[in-house]
TrEMBL record:
Record flagged with keyword RNA-binding: no
Keywords on record: Hydrolase, Lipid degradation, Lipid metabolism
All residue ranges annotated as the PNPLA domain in the record: 16-206
Keyword Methyltransferase belongs to the record: no
Organism: Sphaerisporangium album
SUPFAM superfamilies to which the protein is assigned, alphabetical: FabD/lysophospholipase-like
Name recorded for this polypeptide: PNPLA domain-containing protein
MF-aspect GO terms: hydrolase activity
Record Pfam families: Patatin
Example of a GO biological process term: lipid catabolic process
């Protein structure tokens, strides 16, 4: 599904906001983005690409190696299998993510503390080793921002190339889903999944507006309508694409059995949306 809102006619920049959704959501987004690019939507030319959790992975591939986006679901299949293995070994618990959300609601700080209690944090060096092989090689693009949440304050931070940490470390921070992946210690703080604050963190977009903003959300967030309204009020023209409802609970996003379903959904939505999005993005 997609929807749009707009305010004003003049746009000066293009932004792509990619939300969280685990390996399954990343597979859907990568398939959708790759299909849209192949259909003539020049998403690799976006001035700003913001990624939260799964979106950090897809954003990295889009900005650094867009010709290889089709390889992302394969990497995510391996990642999902690893999540399943650590859960079976008692090092993570997918059901814990559901319990945390129910117990702490929308309190990122409380969820961060619970995440620390569930799985011990790892170092930046360990985090880099976990993600380096699943990301493209090369320098971190200046236009790519990646969100993670500080477990001490509960606030989100946008990591960029200017922060001086390796890209795989930032991706590890952004994808550290409570109860499923270890928090990451960077500097004086410990970081967890950027989705703890918001599924997309779209309201944190800063740009030389008004602009065109395309949001992709593998998992519909309660904050999504509010964030769309905020961007529209700032004068942006906004489109939101939400996945077909193949992710019905948080653990589905980590389940390798849903990867093929995600690919099929992304392929179908590409066919449904490509022409209209191409016209909007380039108008």
């Amino acid at each position: 599904m997609n929807r749009h809102s707009s305010h004003g006619e003049t746009t000066s920049f293009h932004a792509l906001v990619l939300g969280g959704g685990g390996p399954v959501g990343a597979s859907w987004m990568a398939t959708l983005v790759n299909g849209l690019v192949s259909a003539g939507v020049p998403l690799p030319e976006a001035d700003v690409v913001l990624g939260t959790s799964a979106g950090a992975v897809v954003g990295s591939w889009l900005t650094m190696s867009p010709e290889n986006l089709a390889a992302v679901p394969g990497h995510m299949r391996e990642r999902a299998a690893r999540h399943a293995g650590t859960a079976q070994a008692g090092q993570g618990d997918k059901a814990l993510l559901r319990r945390m959300a129910a117990a702490h609601g929308n309190d990122p700080r409380a969820i961060g503390r619970a995440a620390l209690a569930a799985i011990p944090p790892i170092s930046a060096e360990q985090a880099e080793g976990l993600w380096k092989s699943a990301l493209p090689d090369g320098p971190w693009p200046d236009r790519l921002g990646i969100f993670a949440v500080d477990t001490d304050t509960g606030t989100a931070r946008q990591w960029t190339a200017q922060d001086g940490i390796p890209l795989p470390v930032a991706v590890a921070c952004s994808t550290a889903a409570p109860g499923a992946a270890p928090p990451v210690a960077v500097g004086d703080s410990v970081w967890v999944d950027g989705g703890v604050r918001s599924g997309t963190n779209a309201d944190l977009l800063v740009g030389d507006g008004p602009g065109r903003v395309l949001i992709m959300a593998p998992i519909p967030s309660p904050n999504l309508a509010r964030e769309e309204a905020i961007l529209t009020e700032r004068g942006h023209s906004v489109r939101v694409i939400v996945s077909d409802s193949f992710i019905t609970k948080p653990s589905d996003a980590l389940d390798p059995n849903f990867i093929d379903t995600a690919i099929a959904a992304g392929t179908k939505q590409t066919a449904d949306l490509a022409a209209k999005l191409a016209q909007w993005w380039q108008s």
